[in-house]
């Protein structure tokens, strides 16, 4: 018999979630939304301000490109809470240098955070999720994991990889009830985008049919859905929240 679907403030009641890149922007919004929905949340970042986290949310320092750091964070969550029901691989960075100008160091850094970090997170939680009878992994990709713009080739490479790794993992672990979906934000107004060149932001907004940036909490709402039992028949899917960008 399938699990009952719970709506409202208790949508994630009883669930334990790990969220990466939780210090600001989309990650911080997901942490707040998960906590409000009743989850026990382990918020991670390389440089999070734990004082800004909601009451009851744990903070753990995590370099997502570090195998040992992932092992410690996941093992610690299981030791303290007995399980991990949800993983949100949100940590990410971007580089806009063109292909012939990007340095090897910059390329490797983008790959390490966006792609290897996502892979390590999945690899570390999957055995625990299998042992406990299931779980939900939410990998934050991007509209630029589906479509391209000039210059951002390293970001495209990683977010396209996240999209397809998610599908492969979903198929691989479906029988173990480990669901894996990717979430694809459009242009979202965050500290990261605020720090970008205004002409970059203006261009992406101009290509967005709804004509405005998205808000972090709009992405967080999608993450709550994917983490909850409301999405129990979804795996290997792409949840696009982009103001119509990819519909063109």
Automatic annotation (TrEMBL):
<dbReference type="Pfam" id="PF13561">
    <property type="entry name" value="adh_short_C2"/>
</dbReference>
<dbReference type="InterPro" id="IPR002347">
    <property type="entry name" value="SDR_fam"/>
</dbReference>
<dbReference type="InterPro" id="IPR036291">
    <property type="entry name" value="NAD(P)-bd_dom_sf"/>
</dbReference>
<comment type="similarity">
    <text>Belongs to the short-chain dehydrogenases/reductases (SDR) family.</text>
</comment>
<protein>
    <submittedName>
        <fullName>Glucose 1-dehydrogenase</fullName>
    </submittedName>
</protein>
